[in-house]
Design brief:
Layout lengths: L9 E5 L5 E3 L4 E7 L2 E5 L10 E6 L2 E7 L7 H5 L9 E6 L9 E14 L5 E9 L9
Antiparallel strand pairs: 1-2, 1-7, 3-6, 4-5, 6-9, 7-8, 8-9
């Protein structure tokens, strides 16, 4: 695949019942992070760091415009406080909705609404890896 933009990206997130919902139209931007913990193993005989890779992780941040329609972003994200269950998350970062793709089981750790002084009603939601499966691009 050549260099490409994020135009046409798609984000699917399961509701509390396990049905994946397409929340792409509500999102204005998203961030996906796949950090690796590192252990510093530098001996006293070294002049530069030595490190070992440890556990992998995944976090997502979704930002968007509030949509209170059935099966849209508010319906999916707002149930995190009453139904704190694992959710299936699928992100296609390009308009090619087959590859690359990142799928993971996540927990919604926050769902924050903001009313700006211009009247805009937006949200931000943070999601974290839930099940110990190594996040992998397919």
């Amino acid at each position: 695949m050549a260099k490409t933009s994020g135009l046409g990206a798609q984000v699917l997130l399961a509701d509390s019942g396990g049905t994946q919902r397409d929340v792409s139209n509500d999102l204005t931007d998203w961030t996906l992070s796949t950090p690796v913990a590192l252990q510093d193993t530098t001996g006293i005989d070294k002049s530069a760091h030595e490190k070992l890779p440890l556990l992998r992780d995944l976090s997502e941040q979704l930002k968007g415009t509030c949509n209170f329609a059935a099966n849209m972003s508010h319906a999916v994200l707002s149930t995190a406080t009453t139904s704190p269950v694992q959710r299936s998350s699928t992100i296609y970062p390009t308009s090619n909705h087959s590859t690359p793709v990142m799928t993971a089981n996540v927990l919604i750790s926050s769902y924050d609404l903001t009313r700006g002084n211009d009247g805009a009603l937006t949200f931000q939601s943070d999601l974290a890896l839930a099940d110990g499966s190594t996040p992998t691009w397919a």
